[in-house]
Every structure is written in structure tokens, then in C-alpha cells.
Amino acid sequence: MTTLTIWDWEVEKYPLQVGVGVIIGGWTFVKLVNYFLQRSKLKSARVRKRAECKQAKQVLEDQIKQRNISKEVVEEITNLSLSELQSKLKDGTLDVLDVLHAYQAKALECDEKTNCIIEPFKEAEEWAASVKENVSKDSPLFGVPVSLKENYGVEGYDSVYGMSVLIGKPSHEDSVIGQVLRSQGAIPYVRTNVPQTMISWDCSNPVFGATKNPHDTTRTPGGSSGGECALLAGQGSILGFGSDIGGSLRIPSNMCGTYGFKPTVGRLSAKGTHGCTKGQQIVRAAYGPLARDVDGLVTAMKALLVPLMFKLDPTVNPLPFRTEVFEDNRKLKIGWYDNDGWFTPPPCMQRGVAIAKAKLEAMGHTLVPWKPPNATLGAELYVRAMFSDKCETINEMLRYDTLDVCFMIQYTMANIYWPLRRFLVFILHYLMPSLSTGLKAIAGCDSAYDFWNLAVAAEDYRKMVIEDWQSHDLDAVISPGFGCPAIPLKTPALATSAVSYTTIFNVLNFPAGSLPVTKVNAADTANMKDYPTIDLAHKTVKKGMVGAEGLPVNVQCITLPWHEEQCLRVMKDLETALKA
Ligand SMILES: CCCCCC/C=C\CCCCCCCC(=O)NCCO
Prior knowledge:
Number of helices: 22
Strand content: 5-15%
Oligomer: single chain
Number of strands: 15
Low-confidence stretches: none
Distance between the termini: 101 Å
Bound molecules: ligand L644U5YH
Helix content: 40-55%
Shape: globular
Structural class: alpha/beta
């Protein structure tokens, strides 16, 4: 009888070791094969999806060529403001189909420059014809083309948000916002790009690539509604819709110089939208409009706050748009701050607030210094809530996927092995305190008990800030639009702490809007020499400010929950004063 040997082992002598070895080896082999098979399946899905979307754009491009619509007409139509467009559609000076065709052409032109569109809606022509036939010309959005962020469910279309595992899983119904928009005469015509997971303020993913800023294509358009804002800034959309759980309506508005509005959660419906944090109920996503002026935001809010939305989604607050509050001209007491004490914004952002303050004062409002107390706690609560599941939901979805650079830092920080995390938290506490706080918070919750305590802490924080706000008798607050203007592509993940300017109003669930007030100038960049470089985020912003002249700078206007109309009124006052 021959002896079976593995290397120089006689197998019969060590049956247990060999058995265990075979099992472990076999299991590892099966796991490895499965891993590579799954990865290659996802890679093929990405290639297929990209090709499908490219093909859909090509089909539209060919149709546009056949239509022979002149460049001048496209420019003439897409340069109209929303109110001008509405009146020309209403009085019949412009035809619904011509407007749609002009926006389709302009959108493809923007896409060429910034990669902001995922795909056009093939049904847009059909929807336009149905609007002409069935919707009254008096409807607020009669014939207005609208763009939708990719996470708005549309029957028959996938919402992928950069996660390959979601390819080929189309929505079975339209989002409620989409349904109400169409009932009001709007025509969805394109869907726009987002960052992988949408928990990032950059805008790239392994499925559709990176969207670029139209003001400087080497820079980020912001995220996560980055595709929307790049399209709006390039005049390829007149009205868009996005979502915001940490600033995604306001951050890209700040980077692209557009207008965004985040209502209180529950003022507009979330039904039929998608995202990977749906199970996390401490900080919830708000859905809202993006536009090229304040009137655009107001028109959208008015068009959506109607009985049909309250019927399709009875979970929203059935509060129609209060025009009397928006049009009220009582002088207001407005708080202002230009540094939240957690992240120092560069001088251009502080100058933006100073301009807004001076303009509002000149209109007769009273401006007083005020900032949300304990912004560090606000930032900590935000990160803990967002990663309270220890990143498991996202880990599961990304298991076999390619990780995009925009989410790499968050992913790595969330998945650090706990002894190393404890060690780093301890060391960084003395070297880079904000990074230490972030690293501790991103570990999430250890138990349901821990999660309940987090919910209580968030509630207490809201109570404390509201009491402080009320003790100052404030009607509204203005702040920097974000922690910095647009910085180079792929660098936002290194400067995540800059999100404290927007995330705090998600933790607080206050309505907040963003509007452009100025542009970075040479003095702003020269003043960067004294900018602190205390940690990676500040260093990244300092480096990113080189060559930033000409980029948009926004401010935020904020009010207490359910005071959307008052927030929009302050935005409108500021816009009027800036344009005067
Ligand atoms: C030192 C600080 C560590 C921070 C760790 C990073 C944690 C979170 C980054 C969040 C970025 C949020 C961007 C906006 C997300 C958003 O609003 N998405 C919309 C989804 O519908």
C-alpha cells in the first residue's frame, strides 16, 4: 500500500490536521471563487448599465440632430427665467415640445462638459404630449421640463446611486413628488448623477464616473445632488429635485452657485425615493427643489404642497404653502455666524456672510450674532446617527463592489478594527481633536440601548438649540453656505469635517436654503495665508483654495421647523437686495 504524502507529511499519521486543513482550504477556495465571481458579475452589470445609458443618450442626440433646432433657439429658451418660461408657455408663445427639445439639447451639451446626466427619460415626448392634452395651461408647472436626482423612483428605471448591486432592480412606481409634478404639468426629461452611497459631498461613482463642476471642471460640483446642480448651473435645467440628509441640496448649490431648499422632514413626501439610510430614523432625509432663483424654489414648493400630495402620502404634514407668510414684509430679527467653532471656513465664506448681513440690514432687518450652541456635539450626533448600524447596511451592499474614492475615507473610518480605533481616538485627541471625535462617533452604536440613548441625546440637543434660538427671539439665521467653495475632484473625502455647516440643520431638522451671494476673489485667496492647517480637512481646503478665484460662494438661510415660507422670504429679500 502506498503512503499518501502532502509535502513530506504522511497523511495517515495526521488525519485530524489534514481533515481540518482540507475543510479550511476548501472553504477558503469556495469563498474566493465566489468573491471573484460576484465581483465579475457586478463588473459586467456596470459595463452593461453604462452602455445602456450611453445608448439612450445617443438615441436622444440623433433625434436632436433630426429636429434641426438651432443653437440660438436653444439658448433663447434655456436663458429664460422660470417665470418668463411659465408665462410664454401659458400664453402659447412657446410650445411645450419646443421647450422640451431645447432643454434636452442643452442638457446633453452640459453632460458633455460635466458628466452630470445618467440618462434621459425615453418617455419624455409622450409625457409632454399628455401634458398638452390633459393638463390645464393654468397649472403651475404647465410644460416645464424638470430634472430628477437618480434616487427619485421612476417606474421602470433603476435607482443605483453608485452601488452596482442595485443595477437591474427598477422601481415599480413613481415617487410621490414625481407624480405630483407631472399632475401639475411638469415634464421629467433627465435623471442626474450622485456619489456612491450618497453619503458624500463629492459626486462620483464606479458606475457612471465623476461629475465635474461647470465653473472649473477640475473641481467637484459638490454632492450628493451634484449632477442636478452642475446641470442647473450650465442652464441645462430650469428646475430640479434632490434630497438632503447632510446637505445634499445645499452643498452642491454652494459649489455651483445655484439655489437649493431643504424643507423640514415631512413637509414634502419621501415616498417612492431611495437611499441606503432609510432604516436610520434619528436624522432623516428631506426632499426638495433646486433652481436658478428663489422664485423657482417657491414655485416648486407651491406646486407640491397640494391636496394630491397629501392624499398620495398621508404621512406628510398637510400644510399648504402659506403665501401670506412668504409675502409678509415685517422686519425680522436675524442671527448670523461665520464660524461654527468646529470647522474654520476660508475667508471667502465669511465674506459671503458679511455681504448677506449688510444687505439684510440695509433692508431694515436687525442682525445679531448667534450660532447653534455646541457645534461639536451637533457634528458628533450626526456622524453617530448616520453610522449607527456600524456601516453594516452599506457594507452589505458594497461587499463585492468597487469602492469609489468619494466614500473611501468614510468607509475606512467606519470599518477600523476596534482596538486600533481606541488607540487612534486616544492619540488623535491630542493631535487632531476633530478627527478623534469623528473617528469615535463613526463607530456607531453597540446595542439598541445605545441607539435609544443616541436618540435621546439628539432630542435633547434639538431642545437646547431651540431654547437658545427662542431666548434670542430670532426669526431666522444666516450662515456660510458650506465650509468651503468647490475644491478639486477626489479631495472632498479628505475634508469631510466641512459638512458641519449643513449637517447641523439635518440633526436639528430645521428648514434651510442656499443661495449665491458672491464669488471668490483674489483678496480671499491672498488672505488664505493665515488659514489654520490644524488637521487634514483644513489642509485639504487650504490647498483646494489655490486657483479658486471666480468660484461661487453661497450663504444659508435657516428658520425653525415648519417655517419654510419664512425661510424662503428671507432668501427672497436677500436675492432682491443683491440684485438691486
Ligand atoms: C472628522 C469627521 C469625520 C466625519 C466622518 C464622515 C461622516 C459623514 C460624512 C457625511 C457627508 C454627508 C454629505 C451629504 C449627504 C446627503 O445629504 N445625502 C443625501 C441622501 O439623500
